[in-house]
Every structure is written in C-alpha cells, then in structure tokens.
Amino acid sequence: MREISYEEQTVKSGNPLARFAHRTRMTMAIDLVTKLCAASGTVVDFGAGPGLFLHTLGEARHDVTLVGHDPYMAPTFPEVRYAESLDSVAAQSVDVLTALEVCEHLYPNELEALLDDAARILKPAGALVISVPIMYGLAIAPKVSNWMIRSRSLKSEYTPGELFKSMVGIPVCRPQNPRTTHKGFDFRELRAIVSERFLIEAVHLSPVPHTPWCLSSQYFMICRPRARS
User: What are the pLDDT tens digits along the chain (229 aa)?
Assistant: First the structure.
C-alpha cells in the first residue's frame, strides 16, 4: 500500500471534513503566531514534520527566522533551517515556540523535556503555542471514521463503549505507546501539566471558536514563561 504523505493526511485529505478541520487549524496557527512574533523574530517549531507550517508562516512573515525540529521526518522546504535538538537552540533566543499536534504523541518524560527546553529558550516575553486534538465530545465520531477510511479498515481501536464514553467526555484509557495513536488523549490533563510551569494566557478552539470545546476538534493554548526568580 502506498504510504500516505503528511499533507494527504491533513490539509489535502480526501475526507472533506478532515481537510476542513486541518486547514482551519493551520490558518488559526498562522494567525496566532503572526500576531505573537515580534518583527524579525525567531519561530521554532517542535515536531515540524516536513516544514509545511513554517513554510506557510514564512510566506506571511518574510522577516521571521524559521527553525524546525523533527527526528522522524526530513525537511522539504529549503528556507527552513532544522535543529538537531532544542539543546542546540540558544537560551532566551526564541520569540515563539510551537508544538502543533505533537504533545499527544509524547511520553511523560518527553513532555517534561519539552517544557524544560521551552522555559530555557523562550525570551522573557516569548510564547509557547500548543495545539492538540480534542478526542472527546462530538468530534470523536468523525475522527474515528476518518481513521477507518484512511486505513481502509472496518475495525476501530475504540470499542463501541469507549466511543460512547469519549462522546460524553468520560476518560478512556490510553495505549502504552502514544506514537501512532490519539486514543484517549485528554487535552484537559495536558493543560493541567502545562499550567504548573507556564501561564496560560489564552485558549482557542478550532474549527468552531466561541463554542463549548466539545463541538470542536482542536485545542490551542498560548502559554507564557513564568517570571524567573
């Protein structure tokens, strides 16, 4: 079976609902980062994949320095510089650090390392922008359906009972390996962890803002470093 590219899974998905959700998410991310990043600033994208987000951001903000990091995907766009790790990024040198649709795939120690790196590399007035999928509420049904269509399978990793629990917001157990699944991911737990280290300045929902979170598919957090003692 031909491997499905990142764009075919997201902004060029054959599923119109999935395509709409990912394109709206991308538009919101570009808009948020464009407003947050200072003139001639630096944006680092953790889990950048092939660099589509940074490439699109660069088309809107020609003054921004674009840095990506991804250990699993090769860069596609020549204007995006890739860092081997966030360790190589200088302290207090970054205006905006993004982690878009990646935290749901991290093990607890990796999330802690990301937050440590964010606190170190962000400027005092910098921002950490996180987006993650909402795997509870009404969006879970089309998400599971899209996964089944994309994998050409009638089987789902959710049992009917788990699907019902997810739709009404009851936690579902996560698989031990989070790398290839969103099952059971709860943005509410992530928010609690992040808020211990950062000030959560604002939250945004996509693709239907200004409504209860259970009606949307993505959750954005704009986080600011706490004052250093």
Answer: 445 555 555 555 555 656 677 788 999 999 999 999 999 999 999 999 999 999 999 999 999 999 999 988 888 999 999 999 999 999 999 999 999 999 999 999 999 999 999 999 999 999 999 999 999 999 898 888 877 777 777 788 899 999 999 999 999 999 999 998 999 999 999 999 999 999 999 999 999 899 999 999 999 999 999 876 5
pTM of the model: 0.89
CA 78, distance to chain mean position in Å, is 22
Residues, the chain? 229
Which residue type, as a one-letter code, is found at position 62? H
Q: Do residues 108 and 135 touch, judged by C-beta distance below 8 A?
A: no
CA dist., res. 112 & res. 57, Å (int):
27
Q: Token pair for residue 5?
A: 């590219």
Looking at domain 6-176+186-225, its CATH class is: alpha beta
Element (H, E) at 161: helix 160-167
